[in-house]
Design a protein that fits this description.
Elements: H1 3-9, H2 16-39
C-alpha cells in the first residue's frame, strides 16, 4: 500500500505540521524509489 494510506489514517492524531512533514517524507521516499527503479 502507498505511504499516503498510513498518513491518512493518522490525520486525526497528528497536528498539521506533522502531517506536512510526513507527506514530504513520503514524497521523498517515493521519489527515491522511482529513481532507483529508473536506474535499473
Amino acid at each position: 500500500p502507498p505511504p499516503s494510506a498510513k498518513v491518512n489514517s493518522e490525520q486525526e492524531y497528528q497536528p498539521l505540521s506533522s502531517l506536512r512533514e510526513a507527506e514530504l517524507v513520503a514524497a521523498e521516499a517515493w521519489a527515491n524509489t522511482v529513481a532507483s527503479e529508473m536506474a535499473w
